Amino acid sequence: MTRKAIAVDLDGTLCLRNTFNIFLRQLVYAHRFRLLRLAELCAWIGARRLRLISHARMKRHILGRFCPPSPALVDSVVDTVWRHANPEVTTLVDRCRREGYATILATAAPEAYASAIARRFGLEYCIATPQPDSGKAWGEARGCAKRDAVVRLAEERSLVLDIAVSDHADDMPLLEAAATAILVELPVGNLRRI
Fold first, then answer.
1. Measured between alpha carbons, how far is 125 from 2 in angstroms, rounded to an integer?
2. What pTM was computed for the model?
3. What pLDDT, in 10s, does the model give residues 108-160?
4. 125-129 and 190-193 beta bridge pairing
5. What does the pLDDT look like over 34-45, one tens digit per residue?
6. CA–CA separation, 2 vs 52, rounded Å?
């Protein structure tokens, strides 16, 4: 028997803020007394801000050097994300859950904290960017890669992707794969069926 599913993006959709920026702030704070580690972290963030390196390169390096994060750091990130949750999206996810939908968090955010966010929000599945040293091929879970991972999960679990929710053009492949696509209009977080 097949079951309907809803796939929800994280940054700008389920959470109205960028969770990687939240994670970086927490990481800097956690390493404030470890001067060499702090300097390395700040150098990579600075290189990205100056556009000397790509976001993906910075993310891969930081995840490789500073992860897995401590449980306390992950809890702090999750608590901050919870405070900035989009109430319209959480209401939609709760309604779908009550109707028997499978719930999927599909995000380019690192699985180092994305799986904990999925658990806090009561989402059954989490597709996220893997750790660089996890043995999985590394690449951000975005665009076609995110869509392909959601479709693969749906096939493995006998799910039908009924609804996809996102705020970003990077997720057009995922939105096009769903029967219903919902766009989150920022900065207010309102939902609009497309």
1. 16
2. 0.90
3. 999 999 999 999 999 999 999 988 875 666 788 889 999 999 999 999 999 99
4. unpaired
5. 899 899 999 999
6. 47
Nearest CA to 77 out of 19, 38, 147 is that of: 19
The confidence score (pLDDT) of residue 126 equals 97
Compute the distance between CA of residue 79 and CA of residue 46 in angstroms, rounded to an integer: 26
- Beta-carbon contacts of residue 129 (< 8 Å; ≥ 6 apart): 59, 63, 107, 108, 109, 110, 111, 114, 138, 139, 140, 141
131's tokens: 């750790």
Handedness of CA 75, 79, 84, 88 (dihedral sign): positive
Beta strands in the chain (DSSP E): 3-8, 102-110, 125-129, 159-166, 180-185, 190-193
Is residue 105 within 8 Å of 123, Cβ to Cβ?
A: yes
User: Alpha-carbon distance 173 to 164, whole Å?
Assistant: 10
On whether the CB atoms of residues 157 and 147 are closer than 8 A, the answer is no
